[in-house]
């Protein structure tokens, strides 16, 4: 018996890995985050599989279902949105499984950041513009470590992907403007890859008002950085004709 933590991707049921979909079709017990995982992801579940929506369950209840499956020797598909390693709260579940000596594995998934970049048709790491992407969140009920405050991260000037901060977009813009400038491009992506996905574009000076007008209050990613509106950048060395490597030796 094994518990599989599966990243279901950002929303589009086709953006789940082949392995993740296969495991969902094979596991007799499926615990899924119903508030974020679309039902279409579960359409290939085996007939008779036990489907448990964990949206209204607390940790002890979730672990109780897993313990029952373990006692029955039933594999469990624990389905999370996006990639389970990012804000998936799998750490506390894994800690319990290790305490109970229940085997588990993790299946990665497509992140909201990757889906948003694809929707925008943008590369987040452009030469001479930004070679670093910081995935972070805005402090809420869970406080941020002091060294990871948005003020501290802004000093790097890197491309930012900010989760769980849409209701604080005014504060976020105010914090970032001194380091990024009022004209720095921002994109807010609501429910990336879902049928009702929405993109709000602006700058740090204008984005808060645009988000307010669009009435977006949840399930949105905030992308900040010059890469979002930059056409003047140096081409990478990867495909330069003078750049030789093991797969493309220099011609003499």
Short description:
The chain has 252 residues and is of the alpha/beta class.
Which descriptors would you attach to this protein?
single chain, 252 residues, alpha/beta, 5-stranded parallel beta sheet, 10 strands, 19% strand, globular
Task: Please tell me about this protein's structure.
The protein is an alpha/beta fold and 252 residues long. The protein is 26% helix and 19% strand. The chain is built from seven helices and ten strands. The chain has helices at residues 18-26, 59-71, 90-99, 112-120, 150-154, 169-180, 207-214; strands at residues 3-7, 29-32, 50-53, 76-80, 104-107, 133-137, 159-163, 185-190, 198-203, 220-224. The strands form two sheets. A five-stranded parallel β-sheet has the order 3-2-4-1-5, with helices on both faces. The protein has a five-stranded mixed β-sheet with strand order 6-7-10-8-9, sandwiched between helices. Helix 5 (150-154) links the parallel strand 6 (133-137) and strand 7 (159-163). The N and C termini lie far apart (58 Å). The model has no long low-confidence stretch (mean pLDDT 92).
Low-confidence stretches: none
Structural class: alpha/beta
Tally of helical segments? 7
State the share of residues found in helices, binned by percent.
25-40%
Order of helices and strands: EHEEHEHEHEHEHEEHE
Strand order of the largest sheet: 3-2-4-1-5
Sheet with the most strands? 5 strands, parallel
Taken as a percent bin, the fraction of beta residues is 15-25%
As a whole number of angstroms, the C-alpha radius of gyration is 21 Å
| Distance, first to last CA | 58 Å
Q: How many strand segments?
A: 10
Shape annotation:
globular
Q: What's the overall average pLDDT, rounded?
A: 92
């Amino acid at each position: 018996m094994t518990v599989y933590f599966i990243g279901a991707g950002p929303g589009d049921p086709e953006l789940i890995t082949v392995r993740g979909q296969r495991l969902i079709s094979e596991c007799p017990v499926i615990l899924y985050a119903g508030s974020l995982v679309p039902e279409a992801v579960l359409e290939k579940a085996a007939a008779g599989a036990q489907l448990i929506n964990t949206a209204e369950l607390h940790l002890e209840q979730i672990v109780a279902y897993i313990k029952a499956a373990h006692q029955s020797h039933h594999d469990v598909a624990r389905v999370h949105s996006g990639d389970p390693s990012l804000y998936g709260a799998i750490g506390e579940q894994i800690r319990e499984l290790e305490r109970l000596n229940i085997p588990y594995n993790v299946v990665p998934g497509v992140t909201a950041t990757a889906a948003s970049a694809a929707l925008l048709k943008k590369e987040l790491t452009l030469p001479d513009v930004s070679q670093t992407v910081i995935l972070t969140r805005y402090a809420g009920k869970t406080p941020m470590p002091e060294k990871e405050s948005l003020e501290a991260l802004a000093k790097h000037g890197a491309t930012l992907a900010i989760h769980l901060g849409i209701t604080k977009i005014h504060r976020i813009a105010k914090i970032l403007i001194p380091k990024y400038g009022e004209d720095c491009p921002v994109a807010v992506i609501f429910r990336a890859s879902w049928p009702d996905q929405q993109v709000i574009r602006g700058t740090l000076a204008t984005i808060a008002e645009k988000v307010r007008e669009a009435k977006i209050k949840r399930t949105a990613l905030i992308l900040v950085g010059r890469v979002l509106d930059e056409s003047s950048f140096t081409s990478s060395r990867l495909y330069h004709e003078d750049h030789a490597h093991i797969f493309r030796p220099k011609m003499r």
